[in-house]
Amino acid sequence: MTVTQSDFRNAVLNSDLPAPSGLTDGSGQVAGKRFDVYRNNVAVSLSEALETAFPVIAKLLGEENLKGISGLFLRQSPPENPMMMHYGAAFPDFLRSFAPLAHLPYLGDVAEVEQAMRRSYHAADSSPLEADVLAHMPADQIENIKFEFAPSSEVLSSSWPIYDIWAFNMIDGAPKPRAESQDVLVTRIDFDPEPHLLPPGGAVFVSALRSHKTLGEAAETAANSDENFDLGACLTLLLSTQALTTATL
Amino acid sequence: MFDAHPRFPELPNAPGVGYKPQHFQNIMEDAGSVEWFEVHAENYMGAGGRPHAQMRMLSEKFPISVHGVGLSIGGEGPLDPEHLGRLKHLCEWLQPTVFSEHLAWSSHENAFLNDLLPLPYTKDTLTRVADHIDQLQNTIGRQMMLENPSSYLAFEESTWSEPDFLREVANRSGCGLLLDVNNVFVSATNLGYDPRDYIAAYPLDKVGEIHLGGHDEDEDEHGATLLIDSHGKPVVDPVWALLDHTLALSGPRAILIEWDNDVPDWAELESEAARAANALSQVPA
Fold it and tell me: Which NCBIfam families match (chain B) (predicted)?
């Protein structure tokens, strides 16, 4: 009796199926609980990977609920490759579409923040832009500057208070989330990624710069999108969090 | 192919431990009886950040063994060319002293199951595994070592014993072997044979590294002992005894303590390594 890897895989991921026949305990008895060791190893290792990757989602749902939800997710979306550091890319969308969680509509966007933090942690190293580089640019050319961003930087926009929810669950003493939409800039100084709340118009501004618009064009787009856009505050945030690597004319 | 030129050309016949980032400061201050470190290849396949920075510093001071857990060497399908490329890149920048992988499969039809799944020991498996090892060794430009698995069940279709199968794979592919003594103990208990018979049949001359780790104890539905390779506890006394028995036959080898779950503080992990150093000190060189 040949046991194919398809048979084995299907039975590992679906505990309603019997263990494939042709597997024994070494003395001729059918492998039952012995096959379950593999089922358990796979389910536990993938659930734990998700719990590690999404600590805020784990707090919001509770450990037991997350285990149950992970069990459904990992069977629907097992990893596609051995890069476990990125496993769970489809988890935000799963949370958004999972009907029993419809009363927590912000989960998917919060999970996106956690995904971005993880990508940032493993992103390539880079040297930050020195603040005085801008001071040495000719004043009449400042608006033509284009920036490059650190590979560890990301921008996320949400109609939910994603920064506040993240902070409330991860920082001791952080205030309760406000009822507002929020945008987040993820950056990494040295090795530890951090999310930062972007001020009004900030996400539009940063996204424009990231698509290689000039400083002047990006500022104009951001000001048109939000009357409270503050160019100085946004530039200060980008420099102090080491989001930028080069400035060129 | 590229030329491997590791800073440390050989693993010492001394204790090493599986590297955990939380132990970094302790290790840099005083590694005690630990003389080398093993890392899981897949944890160092990001583009940068702390994992790379720590590994650059660690590899300046200590021999590094890269241990792959995701290539699926026993997979029915072809090896994943992207993953082969990642392994090649890792070996190029880290220049580890040795590279090892498992006699197991983990990927099938675009799903990676994150566990070391078992293989039937047949002619077809032998051909496939030897071909895959050949492909890997050509990609990374160096010999690899293949590790014996922990078994919880047996395949009716198997026609080879595990030691004979590993010997033949090594003969065909030119790979070395990594002998996990805890896995031998776990498999022997689960499948009802004497672990010393397994060691007696094993090609010890091909062994470049020994693994030790902790296991959990359970029972199957018939009341038989079922040991589970968990890497979450100290090594048990019967496994230390099996190590002594093995070293008496093989001579001294590099010995790794694997502790991957419920990782203890550095002092406790180092004391396991010290016990391995003591076992080695009893072996004539």
Answer: PRK05409.1 (NF003818)
* Mean pLDDT computed over A137-144: 92
The answer to whether the Cβ–Cβ distance between A31 and B153 falls below 8 Å is yes
Which chain B residues are Cβ-neighbours of A194 within 8 angstroms? none
Structure token digits, residue A106: 């912000």
Task: Spell out, as residue ranges, where chain B has pLDDT lower than 70.
Answer: 1-3
- Whole-number Å distance between alpha carbons of B2 and B141: 6
Domain CATH number, residue A200: 3.90.930
Closest CA to B177 of B143, B131, B151, B200: B143
Strand-strand pairing, B98-102 and B64-67: parallel
CB contact under 8 A, B108 and A9: yes
Residue A44 belongs to a domain: yes
Residue of B151, B152, B194 to mutate, interface with A, max A Cβ within 10 Å: B152
What is the tens place of the pLDDT at every residue in A17-39? 999 999 999 888 999 999 999 99
CA dihedral angle for residue A187, residue A192, residue A195, residue A196, rounded to 10 degrees: -70
Q: What is the pLDDT of residue A100?
A: 96
pLDDT in tens, B60-70: 999 999 999 99
Residues A161 and A213 both lie in one domain: yes
CA–CA separation, A153 vs A90, rounded Å?
20
What SS3 string covers B109-126? CCEEEEEEECCCCCHHHH
Neighbours of A226 (CB within 10 A): 15
Length of chain B in residues, anyone?
285
A115: in domain: no
Kindly report the CATH number assigned to the domain that includes residue B27: 3.20.20.150
Residue of B nearest to A19 (CA): B153
The count of structural domains within chain B is 1
- Whether residue A111 lies inside any domain: the answer is no
